[in-house]
Design brief:
This protein has 166 residues and is an all-alpha fold. It has helices at residues 6-20, 25-57, 59-70, 72-85, 114-143. Helix content is 63%, strand content 0%.
């Protein structure tokens, strides 16, 4: 606190012993200890009062919002979890109503803009194209006898699991 080393504390103790005397020195240290304890108690009480006032003013909620903005991935997963699991007021465990793609996840948040909707449409088209390509490959494989290269034999699956089970 005062950045005193052992030598400085020893010097203060020796000066106190000379000035106050050996009979009154324990009483002096006791009184100083009690005063420091009271000061710490008042500081702790003041800190709690300031935290309570900040809670009433909504500072913690603002702090959570700022922290969520600095971690967008965590904020997104938390929002998704809330929307799937429902609100804590009795709907926990039940899925929430399905979301409209045009509505924001958080109340008061702006709705997705045209760029987001365009990106979602592009992703949906790409997904449809990939499904169609996979279907055409499966049809070609079935027409060729099930084995790539046209040889006869059992049909090969599109995906072989990593554990080796068919």
């Amino acid at each position: 606190m005062f950045d005193l080393g052992w030598t400085e504390m020893m010097l203060v103790g020796v000066v106190a012993l000379i000035v106050v005397g050996p009979k009154e020195l324990p009483n002096l240290f006791r009184a100083v200890g009690q005063a420091v304890g009271k000061a710490r108690g008042m500081a702790r009480e003041f800190s709690r009062a300031m935290e309570a006032a900040a809670d009433e003013a909504g500072v913690k909620e603002i702090n959570r919002t700022i922290q969520a903005a600095t971690r967008p991935v965590q904020f997104g997963t938390d929002s998704l979890r809330k929307s799937v699991m429902g609100t804590p007021g009795g709907t926990a465990g039940r899925p929430a109503a399905p979301l409209d793609p045009g509505t924001p996840l958080e109340p008061g948040a702006p709705a997705p803009g045209p760029a987001t909707k365009g990106f979602a449409a592009q992703r949906a088209e790409e997904h449809s194209r990939r499904l169609a390509e996979a279907a055409s490959r499966a049809e070609a494989r079935a027409a060729a006898g099930g084995v790539p290269g046209g040889a006869s034999g059992p049909a090969l699956p599109d995906h072989v699991p990593s554990d080796g089970t068919p």
